[in-house]
Design a protein that fits this description.
Strand content of chain B: 25-35%
Shape of chain B: globular
Structural class of chain B: alpha+beta
Helix content of chain A: 25-40%
Strand order of the largest sheet of chain B: 3-4-8-6-7
Largest sheet of chain A: 8 strands, antiparallel
Distance between the termini of chain B: 34 Å
Strand content of chain A: 15-25%
Distance between the termini of chain A: 40 Å
Number of strands of chain A: 18
Largest interface: A-B, 93 and 84 residues
Helix content of chain B: 25-40%
Number of helices of chain A: 15
Structural class of chain A: alpha+beta
Radius of gyration of chain A: 22 Å
Number of helices of chain B: 11
Radius of gyration of chain B: 21 Å
Largest sheet of chain B: 5 strands, antiparallel
Number of strands of chain B: 17
Oligomer: heterodimer
Chain lengths: 462, 352
Amino acid sequence: MEDLRPFECDGLSVYRQLPMVVVLPETIEQAQAIMRLCHELKVPVVARGAGTGLSGGALPLADGVLLSLAKFKSILDIDPHNAMATVQPGVRNLAISEAAATYGLYYAPDPSSQIACTIGGNVAENSGGVHCLKYGLTVHNILQLKIVTAEGELLTIGSETLDSPGYDLLALMTGSEGMLGIIVEVTVKLLPRPQRAQVLLAAFDDVVKAGEAVGAIISAGIIPAGLEMMDRLAIQAAEDFAHAGYPRDAEAILLCELDGTNAEVSEYIMAARKILTASGATQVRTAVDEAERQLFWKGRKSAFPAVGRISPDYYCMDGTIPRRQLPLVLRRISEMSAEYGLPVANVFHAGDGNLHPLILFDANKEGELHRTEEFGRRILELCVEVGGTITGEHGVGMEKIDTMCVQFRSGELAQFHAIKAAFDPNGLLNPGKAVPMLHRCAELGAMHVHNGQLPHPELERF
Amino acid sequence: MNDHSAALQQQVMDAVQNASPLNITGGGSKHFLGHAREGQDIDVSGHRGIVEYDPRELVLTARSGTTLQEIEAVLAEAGQMLAFEPPHFGDGATLGGTIACGLSGPRRPFLGSARDFVLGCKLLNGRGEILGFGGQVMKNVAGYDVSRLMTGAHGTLGILLEVSLKVLPRPAASITVARECSPEEAIAGMSALLGKPLPVDGACYHGDRCYMRISGSEQAVREARTRIPGDVLPDAEKFWQELREHRLPFFHHRSHLYRIMMKPATPPLHIDGAWLLDWDGAQRWLYSDDDTESIRHRVELAGGHVTVFRGGNHGDTVFQPLSAPMLAIHQRLKASFDPNDIFNRNRMYANL
C-alpha cells in the first residue's frame, strides 16, 4: 500500500485517492498489453506523467489502474534539418529544449512546471506558459503522436509533415486529458532561439492603467514574447521572496518581453517604452543585462511559491477573459475577496488574457477550504459571464467538472460524450473527469439558461 | 437580417426527416476540391456579417458566409491580417469554406495554419443542434477542441455558422529577394531557415529561382536583407498573391495538380512533371501525367502524402487513403456529429 502512496494525487493535492494498482510499462508493447487486458476486464485506466497537473486530471480511481509513463523517458530523435524532435511521453518539457540547444533550437511552450512536467502530460493538457501569445500552446507546437487506444491498438495521429490526411485528430487529442487515448510518443516542432530577448518592467499606480497599456502595445502592432501582469499583493510577495527589484508600492507591474533579431528588439523596446509611459506608467525600466532580465522573470516565476510563504495555503485559479474585461473582473474579484474575507493575489498572462487569481486561505481553519472553493467557482463563473473560459491552461480534470456545467449547455456536453464514445465506447479512459455527465449538471441546478429557455425543455430537471 | 441560423437549422431538420443528404455551399470557390458533390445544396453564403472585432483583442468573429474579401478589408483598416494567408480561389470565397477546407497560404510554415488561428466556432450538427465550442480567447482548454477538429473536415461533421479567429498585426515592412539556384540548393537554403532566427515569412522555389519574403519591423527587414542572398523582387506582393491563388503561369498546366506534403528538408523527388515548392519546401505542387497510385507510392516511401488538388477524376481517391483503424475512428467521429450521414457525403472519403 505504501508503494501506492506517491500516486494518490497530482499537483492538486486536495483530491486524494489510492489507485487499485499502479503499472509502469517500459515499452509500447507492454502498454498495449495492459490496455488490452483492461479492455477485456472492463477496468478503468488513468494515465499519469509527472503528476504536476493542477486540476486533478491524473487523480487515480479506487477501482482502476494507474498507468504511469515514468519509464518512457528517452529522447528518440532530434532532426535539426526539419526542426523537430521525437520523444517518449515521460521526457520532461525542459529536457527537450536542453537537448535541442546544441542546434540553436528549442521547444517553445514553457509551463511554469517545465523542470518537472512531462511532454505527454503537456499534450494531454494542452499546456501553455508565459510565451503563448507569440508562440502558441502545445497544440501549435506538435506534429505527431502515437497513441494506444482503449482497445490496445497503436495509432499514429498527425504526421511528420505540416498536416496530415483526414480529420485534425492531433488537435482533438491535444488537451483531451487522457480521455481518448494513451500518448506513447510525441513529435514536437522546434524553433530557432531568438537572437536576443529583452524585458521591460513598468510600474503603475492603477491596475486599470496597466490593463490599458497592454491593449495599447498590441494595437501598435507589437506582439511581445511575454506580457505578464501582477497586482500589489503578488508584487509584494514576489519581491520579498525573490528580491527581483520590483517597486513594492506599485498597484500593478507589467513585464513585457520582446524577442527577435537585434535590430527588431531595439526598435520594439523603444516603441514599447513610449507606449508604457504614455499609458501612465510611473516608471519603466529596461533590464540592463541578461542577469537583470533573469531576475525580473525570477520574481514572476516565483510568484506562486512566494504567495505560498505568506499564507498557509493558496488555491490557484485559471480563467481566461477577453483582455478588455480585466478592470471589471479585477474589481469583482476584489469585492468577492472582501465578501469571503479571503485575500487574493493576481498574476495574469496579460498578453493572452489568462488570469491566475491565487486565493489565500488556511485549510486548518474550519470551513475555510469550502469557502475558498466556492469563491474560486464564482471567479470562474465570472470569467464565463464576461465571455471567457473556466480554464486557460490547467485543464478541467476533477476540479472544474462542475463548472463545466456553467460554460456548456447540454447539447455541447452530449457532443463531447459522443466524441469520447467514438474513441472509448466502454468509457474506460480516465472516466469521470473533464466532461460532466448531464445528470450531474442537472442535479447541480446549474444548467445554463439560454434566452430564458432551458435546453431540452421536454426533459425533467431535478 | 444576415443571421440565417434558424432557416439553416430548419433545412437540416427537414433533411434529417427526409433522409436526404445535403451539400454545403458558400461562395463556390473551392468546388474543385474533394470528391463529387452529393445531395441537395444548402447555401450558407447569405449567413454573413462580422459579429465582433476588437483589434486590441486580436480576435475577429464572423458568420461563416462572410467573404474573405470583406474580412480582410476590415482587418487591413486596423493594420491587421489573417496570418495564415488563406487562398481565396475566387471572389466569393467565404470564411466558412476557408475553414472547412483548412487551406493556408505562403505564411503557413512561419506563422501557422488555418486551424492554428481558429479559437472557437458555432456549428450546426447533424441532429439540427446549434452548438458553440472554444471561444474568443487564446487560451482555452475547457472541453475537446471541436473548433480545430472542424477545420479541414470539409463540412462532413457539420455546418460552420460562426468562427472566431486570432488575427495578427501586418508587418510594418516587407521585401522579397530572389536568386537563381538548383532545386537541391533551394531546399537546403529554405530548410536552413528553420534553424535561423530570421524574420522570413515566405519561401518558395519556382522556375529555377528561390524566393524569400522578409517581413517585420523596418530595422529587422533591413538587417535581415544583408544576411539573405538574392536580388530584390519588384512587385513582390503580386508575386505572393499569384502564388497563393494559383495564378502564376506555372498553374496554367493542363494535367492533374498534386499537392505533396513532405518534411521540408527532403531532397527533390524524381517524379516526372513540373514542380513548384512552397512552404519552405514542405508543400510541393506537381503537375504530372503519372498515375496517382504510383505518385502516392513514391511519396509515401519518402514520408509524405498526396492530395489530388485539381483535375482528379472522381474515381481517384482525392485525399491520401486512411489506414483501416483510422478510417474506423473517422467514421465513428462522423457518426457522433452527423448520425444520419446528411452532410457532404463521401466528399473526403468514400463511406465517410
